[in-house]
């Protein structure tokens, strides 16, 4: 086959950097012929075919124009056009990629084996293990992975890349329940999870992204608060210009925010935890607005970290909404909790509703398990209770009805007979606000003798704190439905109904429900005191009292109250779920 000559021309204007061939030399396809430089970029001119070099015109150092001849070669067989498309190369290309992968590796658990082992020895997980438990596989995009502590003036930079990986906080966006979610995971293995300069910058950045893109946030808050050891930033005096805390709190009502605590959570980390919409803490959590050093520095004595805000304290005072067994359980709960803010589930299971016919005792003074009512009415295994160890006279939590999220509040007659004390009132008001902020319909199961009363209770600020239920109830925009299970008395009952029997979108009652403006015994004694005092014979007085009380009870029975339109309907308990589903179906989604 006769060879054809082909002239190779310059693909662009530049300088001849290197000539790699000579006349008479045989080359293979892909061999480097000439290396050019243009605008500080190296451009290869390669052989596209096996060929023999006939002549070389290019000279190293020569300035050439696009189209200038560089060399001539003979190609065996069919003539082919030499490509004039430049291919930019760098001698350091592969070196840079390798350096990049090496840099990434320094921030991963595989290169921080000692730090990870320390966590495992305590029974804890690494930050990246917690991250993996939250996100759907292969969905996380990290922000600021190469950050290190602002301590290059104190420590070797290469060492900081591993010992202060990501500056102690992993931030980014991943899919949780198949929906984009901002993720923040504090890394206690980096300087005890303290909050440094770049740590805060990363936190501020992801919170801004969450605000702009309306993304919910899950945050693991383990750490010891502010870090005074960052020395590279010489222009920061007080650090009070830090926007992280205000930015985090400012997301309230705009996106769902879930915080998870494990281990020590002090100072700034505790502030972030406490400001979340839902707080989850493991059984090995200590949470406090200051750690041991600040307490001792304030002249308040020397304490150990384990003496500050143990879980037993923080679950009973309402700081912690949900207690998890460990970090794995906490991540699972966080994912489940977030789902209530992400919309309707298409798959659900319905419990046997006939159980509701036998839950309520015939004896009106006998207690029962209100959680059994809630868990029967709602989708199976959908109930997630908040603050069960605080304000127990009212239970609060999320559940689903045909997959749709709803907020549940219910009086628990096992605690104070269902009387609403300040803790229960505060808990319910906060919960109603949370549901309202995210348009989650509320279902209230009422069985209360009213507000808790007495001189001792007034020392707790009962007037102000219980009145908050009326303020919140009056301002609700989300749908509110009431189901009166049994007792519905006085101001406490009105608070459970968001203000009155007429305020809910629909007010239902079970047949055994009973109503009254106050406790009926007290109502008789107040309303008929003169008639009772006028009877001197104790037996006659007692007989009149019993007669008047029976009349009050008869007037307050559910059927009678419905007959004068003070409630909307009396229903068979076994149809409670059906009625609530009809209510939800007519509400805009």
From TrEMBL:
MF GO annotations: propionyl-CoA carboxylase activity
Pfam families: Biotin_lipoyl, Carboxyl_trans
Positions of the CoA carboxyltransferase C-terminal domain: 352-589
Matches recorded under PROSITE patterns: BIOTINYL_LIPOYL, COA_CT_CTER
CDD domains reported in the protein's UniProt record: biotinyl_domain (cd06850)
Spans through the membrane: none
Gene3D superfamilies with a match to the protein in the record: 2-enoyl-CoA Hydratase, Chain A, domain 1 (3.90.226.10), 2.40.50.100
Lipoyl-binding domain: residues covered: 1-74
InterPro entries assigned to the protein according to its UniProt record, in alphabetical order: AccD/PCCB (IPR051047), AcCoA_carboxyl_beta (IPR034733), Biotin_lipoyl (IPR000089), ClpP/crotonase-like_dom_sf (IPR029045), COA_CT_C (IPR011763), Single_hybrid_motif (IPR011053)
PANTHER family found in the cross-reference section: PROPIONYL-COA CARBOXYLASE BETA CHAIN, PROPIONYL-COA CARBOXYLASE BETA CHAIN, MITOCHONDRIAL
Name of the protein this chain belongs to: Biotin/lipoyl-binding protein
Originating organism: Arenicella chitinivorans
